[in-house]
Design goal:
Blueprint (H helix, E strand, L loop, with lengths): L1 H22 L10 H10 L4 H15 L3 H24 L5 H10 L2 H9 L4 H28 L7 H19 L2 E2 L2 E2 H16 L2 H14 L10 H13 L6 H17 L8 H16 L2 H12 L5 H34 L7 H17 L5 H7 L1 H18 L9 H6 L3 H51 L3 E2 L1 H13 L4 E9 L3 E9 L6 H11 L3 E8 L5 E8 L5 E8 L9 E8 L3 E9 L4 H20 L3 H15 L5 E9 L4 E7 L4 E4 L4 E4 L15 E6 L5 E5 L1 H4 L5 H10 L5 H15 L8 E8 L1
Antiparallel strand pairs: 1-2, 3-4, 4-5, 5-7, 6-7, 8-17, 9-10, 10-11, 11-12, 12-15, 13-14, 13-16, 16-17
Length: 758
């Protein structure tokens, strides 16, 4: 029922609108306002099946000759037919197509106008001005329908809205009903409403626009001065009490008509529209004006929302710091749980006591062996234990002749030594793995604590929003046909500006979007990400200050000859904070098993970096994890992280081949002297920080390439001979030469990664 009443109401509104605009004219000869409003409303997703009959009735009431009947049907047909064709073929109508349909819809008007002796210039002006008026209508309807009234209109949109008011004023000027002026009723009521619900400047602007519009039909300024006097009167008596502005308006009209004589004639009927407006305005409940004031106020600076954001950041910073302390304390607890391994002498003493208690206890020679020759016996037992640890077992041949001839339990002694040393080895390995696991967990807890402290530091700084630039963004984007429903601009640090925009999906790839944001934000801005919003057709576009540098890369790979699977793995990842990570992991050997090992290592490194751990914790954790496997298959890791904001590269190596930085005139070598990952639990990585320059080429290679050259110096000299500036061609040249060094045969897996700094 409500939907039916809504459609009936909309039909009546559209009919009245078309009736008024059909009467709107310029010099009483040019009639350009009705048909463009029809097409503009259809473009603004209003129901065509409501618009068509409303336009027909509104137009025919004014003009009802046979020619007018044909003209109105032609206009409606050129809207309805293309509209439903586009619906059937499921192809959205383009804006230029809409203008073509609107242009051809006036064919009958032009033909009948010319044949009927009309002025061709006026007829042409009606069509041309009508198309321009349609552009103004579309310009204002699009943002209102997409954005709603939440945001202030841009300057362009305000001008287009004023043009529509001019047309309405021109039409209402010709809509007197037996001397009762609909124009005065419309203007007087809206002046009161605007003065009470919005800014006083809007009152003056509205009065001026409606006054100018009333001059269009016959160039008569009779209403301009009265409207301005009305505006001044309601502004002067603008209070919270609605009675005063209503009475001041009525009094000013009384003075204008009976005292100043600004009208040609003035009677009681001329006075009634203002009285009706004042009375209706006075009796309307205040709550409706409060809702209207929110709409007319438009987009505010949202200071309360911004304060909430900063307050929440403060709370989050405090909680992150507290969590960081929790993980730091847990790290200390786990370190204390680690069982330190016994020294070699402590182990031998412990096993000696165990053997003495289990074998020698009850023996008739016990006192003789362990008291008279106590030190010698203990020394012999420890030597036997050492042999068992080194060779895995002891035999009768390892016993001194005087002990084997005197001891009656020699076989039991051999078995006990072998059993105890074997059991201790297993126990030691288990304890070592447990301790390694505890150290690993301890490292992770320390890393999480560090990450949380870093995050706390990032959110600790108050976000500085820029409302001025936000408004400029929305205005200038609208001028470039990019509808932006919301914009937030804020600073992050001293050198980074971020902008978050809500725009139409079709506007995301427009070059003007990035250009306008860069211009308003005072520096080159790049699109960081695009994701949908909860409202269909709108997307959120995040932009940030472009870093000082960028990079491109090339990759060349070749598995060992005779194998199809490479033991090398690589990773290229963009990290948060304008950083790139490049990594090569070389599994010892070649083939599937080495490939799995290297992929595991590089996958761990990649995920640790993306999580935000620092270099030391990453390599330490990966090393401990792989050390637990104890499969004697190790991997080298070669990592380079590049901060594009300042051009600083961090090289991190464990057992990897040398890396190189090929500049314009020189080539630097980044060497490594550490063991591969997984060999020793406490192996340390080699790290080096390098400041990069524009056009530098960073070369990371597995040892399958480096080893084909006689030395690092020879490889360095070769890199200086490569002339190409393309990183992919650079990598291909290196691989080609490495294969040529071995007569086209790959004796090991080969991987080369080249990164160019720009």
């Amino acid at each position: 029922m409500k939907s039916k009443l809504y459609f009936v109401l909309m039909f009546l509104v559209f009919t009245a609108l078309f009736f008024v605009l059909a009467r709107a004219s310029i010099y009483s000869e040019i009639l350009p306002f009705a048909f463009p409003m029809l097409f503009a409303l259809a473009w603004a997703n209003q129901k065509v099946w409501l618009l068509a009959p409303a336009y027909f009735i509104g137009y025919i009431i004014n003009y009802h000759s046979f020619q007018d009947f044909i003209i109105v049907l032609t206009t409606i047909l050129l809207l309805v037919l293309p509209y439903y064709i586009h619906v059937v073929i499921k192809k959205p109508m383009k804006k230029y197509e809409l203008f073509l349909y609107a242009f051809f819809s006036q064919t009958a008007y032009v033909v009948f106008g010319v044949l009927g002796g009309g002025n061709p210039i006026f007829i042409a002006c009606s069509v041309v001005i009508g198309l321009l008026f349609m552009l103004a209508c579309i310009t204002i309807f699009e943002p209102i329908i997409i954005r709603g009234f939440t945001y202030k209109l841009t300057v362009t949109e305000i001008v287009c809205g004023a043009v529509i008011l001019l047309a309405l004023s021109a039409g209402l000027t010709n809509c007197d009903i037996y001397g009762f002026s609909l124009l005065k009723l419309f203007v007087s009521f809206l002046l009161l409403v605007i003065s009470f619900a919005s800014n006083v400047s809007y009152v003056m602007v509205f009065a001026a626009v409606m006054g100018v519009g009333s001059m269009l039909p016959n160039n008569n300024a009779i209403f301009f001065a009265p409207f301005m006097i009305w505006a001044l009167s309601v502004i002067i008596f603008r209070t919270q009490n609605k009675i005063f502005p209503a009475l001041s308006l009525i009094l000013s009209e009384f003075l204008i008509g009976f005292y100043f004589n600004l009208y040609y004639s003035f009677g009681v009927l001329d006075f009634i529209p203002v009285i009706i407006s004042g009375v209706v305005f006075a009796v309307i409940p205040r709550k409706y004006f409060k809702e209207l004031s929110v709409i007319l106020a438009g987009r505010s600076d949202r200071m309360a929302i911004k304060n909430v954001v900063n307050r929440n950041r403060e709370i989050l910073e405090r909680r992150l710091n507290n969590l960081a302390e929790v993980f730091c304390d847990m790290n200390e607890v786990f370190k204390k749980l680690i069982k330190r391994e016994l020294t070699e002498d402590q182990v031998k003493d412990m096993l000696y006591e165990e053997i003495k208690d289990s074998i020698c206890k009850g023996c008739s020679e016990q006192k003789h062996c362990h008291r008279t020759f106590g030190e010698d016996t203990k020394k012999i037992f420890k030597e036997l234990i050492t042999i068992a640890f080194e060779r895995g077992k002891v035999t009768i041949l390892d016993f001194p002749s005087y002990l084997s001839s005197r001891c009656g339990r020699i076989n039991h002694l051999i078995n006990e030594i072998n059993t105890l040393t074997s059991q201790y080895k297993s126990y030691s390995k288990l304890v070592g793995n447990v301790d390694t696991s505890k150290l690993l967990i301890s490292d992770q807890l320390s890393g999480i604590s560090g990450i949380m402290k870093t995050l706390a530091g990032e959110v600790d700084t108050m976000v500085s929003f820029d409302s001025t630039r936000e408004r400029k963004l929305i205005d200038e984007l609208a001028m470039n046909n990019v509808i932006c429903t919301d914009a937030v601009v804020y600073e992050k640090g001293s050198r980074t500006t971020l902008a978050s925009l809500v725009v139409r999906e079709e506007d995301t790839n427009k070059l003007k979007l990035q250009q306008v944001v860069s211009k308003i934000c005072g520096g080159k801005m790049v699109v960081q990400d695009v994701y949908p919003t909860e409202k269909a057709g709108l997307v959120n576009v995040n932009l940030k200050t472009s870093p000082m540098f960028d990079c491109v890369f090339g990759l060349a790979c070749q598995p060992k000859s005779g194998t199809s699977i490479s033991g090398d793995s690589h990773s290229i990842e963009r990290l948060d904070g304008d950083k790139f990570m490049f990594a090569i992991c070389d599994g010892m050997g070649s083939g599937e098993q080495a490939g799995e090992k290297s992929q595991t290592a590089v996958g761990l490194v990649e995920n640790f970096y993306k999580a935000g751990f620092d270099n030391e914790i990453i390599l330490s954790s990966v090393n401990k994890l792989l050390n637990l496997e104890r499969d004697d298959i190790f991997s080298t890791i070669d990592i380079c992280t590049i901060d594009l904001k300042n051009g600083i590269a961090d090289f991190v190596k464990m057992g990897a081949a040398s890396s190189y930085i090929r500049g314009q005139d020189e080539c630097k070598i980044i060497e490594c002297s550490s063991l591969p990952v997984g060999v020793l639990q406490d192996a340390k990585a080699v790290t080096k920080k390098v400041v990069l320059s524009e056009k530098d080429m960073i070369v990371l290679c597995s040892d399958g390439i480096n080893d084909t050259f006689g030395s690092d110096g020879e490889f360095k000299d070769f890199l200086l001979t490569i002339k190409t500036a393309n990183p992919q061609e650079f990598a291909d040249e290196i691989l080609k030469q490495a294969l040529a060094n071995n007569n086209g045969y790959a004796v090991d897996d080969m991987t080369c990664l080249v990164v160019k700094i720009m």
